[in-house]
Amino acid sequence: MSPLGIKRRVDMLFFALRNVWRKKGISLLAILGVGLGCALMTFLFAISAGLNARLEKTFSGLAGRVVVSPRDAIFGGMFFSSGTPLPAGYLDAIRQMPGVLHAYGRVAASLRPADDPNLILPFNGYTGEETARPGSPFKKIIAGRAPVKNNEIIIGKRLQDSLGFINGKMTAGHSYRFIVPDGPRLEQLTLTVTGVFETGNEISDTSFCGPADLARKIARFPPDKYSSIDVQVDSPERIPAVEKEITAHFRQGNPPVQVVIPRDLLNPLRETLDTVNKFLTAVSLVAALAGGLSIAIIMSASVLERMREFAVLKAVGWRGRHIVMLVLMESLILSLCGAALGLGLGGAGAVLVRRYVFPDMIVLNRSLMAAVAAAGIITGTFGGLYPAWRAKQAAPADIFRQG
């Protein structure tokens, strides 16, 4: 492009900038329309990205894991104590199987806060050898310390956040009363929360953890029994072989067992999350289209008022494409301002939610913000296509004849 052509484009840009702010109130309405759409897109996409990140982190934490539990246990014996207890001999046999890297006995129980007895919370008891494992909750303390006494527990970060919305957040260093069964009666047990842990595994992070002996006391388990056995396979590819080996070995066992792959249990959750993501995307697109529609309506009204102006420009030598470019530039300027406003509002809202409501449910990154900005600019610019076409139709002779 020649220097003269560049100068004309720059002059047209400044002309468009002046025209945009000729009627500030109308321009602000257009910017607000695009801005609100982009703000909603930013917030919803940030939630979607956060949910996906949390699920993927959980999936990666469950890679290579297999849970062996009684066949009559609900939810694969992963959440609450149920089913016939497994003898310690099962654990010894599994540890000798090929492909098994580690195997730990787990005792599951449930805790009911004394101030809200209808609330049933999962509690996982860990044996001493498992508490030393690098990835265990006892090694992922983010506040406080690990329990050392039989009346001390730690709470998962997700559970702590959730309780904050129900009956108050449980914090490290404080004692709380829980209701536990004592034969036919119920008694209150005072436990001290010594720390908060975060493993990145949503299943673990939504529970209490503590010594296995405490879990046995609460669930009334004998000392040589487990509610489930957590098996770590040396390679995710060997999970089918290990599953087959465990199933065959305990086919005639008493009690019978079931082999659960935790990742498979979460597949329905992934499908549900995909549906939620599609819904959020649809809502975001509608918001973006609404922003583009606001540009189209306001620019159309502006073009109708300025038909005489366009006729004059044509009379002094402007071509139809110049008129189209001018109107599209004005739409682009409004879209840019609206997208910037929307990113600011949506980003601020997301940051506030992340800080005060759901700390790890919101993910903001450059690619997300770039996608929102692009969507706002594109829809806003497309909203200017029809007004630009109308402006191009301005016929100087007809308009001047009409006075």
Automatic annotation (TrEMBL):
<protein>
    <recommendedName>
        <fullName>ABC transporter permease</fullName>
    </recommendedName>
</protein>
<dbReference type="InterPro" id="IPR050250">
    <property type="entry name" value="Macrolide_Exporter_MacB"/>
</dbReference>
<keyword id="KW-1133">Transmembrane helix</keyword>
<feature type="transmembrane region" description="Helical">
    <location>
        <begin position="324"/>
        <end position="348"/>
    </location>
</feature>
<feature type="domain" description="ABC3 transporter permease C-terminal">
    <location>
        <begin position="282"/>
        <end position="393"/>
    </location>
</feature>
<comment type="similarity">
    <text>Belongs to the ABC-4 integral membrane protein family.</text>
</comment>
<dbReference type="Pfam" id="PF12704">
    <property type="entry name" value="MacB_PCD"/>
</dbReference>
<feature type="transmembrane region" description="Helical">
    <location>
        <begin position="28"/>
        <end position="51"/>
    </location>
</feature>
<feature type="transmembrane region" description="Helical">
    <location>
        <begin position="368"/>
        <end position="389"/>
    </location>
</feature>
<dbReference type="InterPro" id="IPR003838">
    <property type="entry name" value="ABC3_permease_C"/>
</dbReference>
<keyword id="KW-1003">Cell membrane</keyword>
<feature type="transmembrane region" description="Helical">
    <location>
        <begin position="279"/>
        <end position="304"/>
    </location>
</feature>
<dbReference type="Pfam" id="PF02687">
    <property type="entry name" value="FtsX"/>
</dbReference>
<keyword id="KW-0472">Membrane</keyword>
<dbReference type="GO" id="GO:0005886">
    <property type="term" value="C:plasma membrane"/>
</dbReference>
<dbReference type="GO" id="GO:0022857">
    <property type="term" value="F:transmembrane transporter activity"/>
</dbReference>
<feature type="domain" description="MacB-like periplasmic core">
    <location>
        <begin position="27"/>
        <end position="248"/>
    </location>
</feature>
<dbReference type="InterPro" id="IPR025857">
    <property type="entry name" value="MacB_PCD"/>
</dbReference>
<keyword id="KW-0812">Transmembrane</keyword>
